[in-house]
Backbone:
């Protein structure tokens, strides 16, 4: 992704690319008016991420933590429950434990509880898509937890999911998400 962005933004003098871990980057303090973190909050070091973001923002700068939160409304819950049998059979370490997240059960603001930020706001937008079996499996194969499986295990898991989708769910899966943007200003 960085290479593509570099190609498209090569003509801009005020754009600097760094390919390194956020936690290790030597970033100047009090420099940025906006820090965004899209679909990556869970990858950042939990012990340092809030402080690191606050450090690079200048006073009253904005942090935007953006994520798609998968939810499971009742009308499509059957697939997710049945899919867990496939996971338990082929990749038990990936099986979901506990209740599935309901559409009205969104996570707390990621910067909530921090004295480094104020004016917390959470903006949401619900969306869904319906994928045929092949498209769903192609997407699944890109998820890091599945990509990390050995090839045989991943193939058995995806074949098991394909059989489930084709035989019990009409050859398609509907996924529901809520896009969530947690916004806050640095104190």
Residues:
């Amino acid at each position: 992704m960085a290479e593509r962005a570099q190609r498209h933004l090569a003509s801009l003098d005020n754009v600097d690319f760094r390919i390194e871990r956020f936690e290790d980057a030597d970033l100047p303090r009090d420099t940025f008016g906006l820090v965004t973190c899209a679909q990556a909050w869970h990858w950042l070091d939990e012990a340092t991420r809030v402080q690191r973001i606050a450090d690079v923002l200048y006073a009253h700068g904005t942090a935007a933590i953006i994520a798609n939160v998968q939810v499971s409304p009742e009308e499509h819950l059957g697939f997710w429950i049945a899919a867990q049998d496939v996971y338990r059979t082929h990749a038990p370490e990936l099986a979901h434990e506990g209740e599935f997240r309901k559409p009205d059960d969104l996570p707390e603001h990621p910067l909530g509880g921090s004295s480094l930020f104020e004016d917390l706001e959470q903006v949401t937008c619900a969306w869904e898509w319906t994928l045929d079996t092949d498209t769903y499996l192609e997407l699944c194969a890109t998820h890091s937890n599945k990509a990390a499986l050995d090839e045989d295990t991943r193939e058995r898991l995806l074949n098991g999911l394909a059989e489930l989708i084709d035989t019990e769910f009409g050859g398609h899966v509907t996924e529901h998400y809520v896009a969530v943007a947690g916004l806050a200003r640095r104190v």
Observations:
- The first helix runs from residue 2 to 8.
- Residues 2-186 form a domain with the Rossmann fold fold (CATH 3.40.50.150).
- The first strand starts at residue 32 and ends at 38.
